[in-house]
Amino acid sequence: VRLVESGGGLVQAGGSLKLSCVASGETTCISLMGWFRQAPGKERELVARISEYGTEWYTASVHGRFSISRDNVKNTAYLQMRNLKPEDTAVYYCDVPQIGRGQGTQVTVSS
Fold this sequence. Notes:
This protein is mainly beta. The chain is 0% helix and 53% strand. A hairpin with a 5-residue loop joins strand 5 (45-50) and strand 6 (56-58). The protein is globular.
């Protein structure tokens, strides 16, 4: 089982991106799905997380701008990012505690 992210890219400040994370392979019921990010020279940061029941959590800096969702049938998590800021620039990683972490997808926000 592995996690594959997609949807990163380059966007201007104020723009939007939507990240996807697919858990491929034989999977059992997936509980938590989340997104971390790491910017150069900074520590890894948990951005958002969603439980199997749909309970969401966000770090304060993205609250109201980012939205996490999931499709339990497709074993896929999404991160809709709106009103992006240059400080959102980072490599974003999908994280599922029972599987591990994906390879990451770069998000770059230009000012």
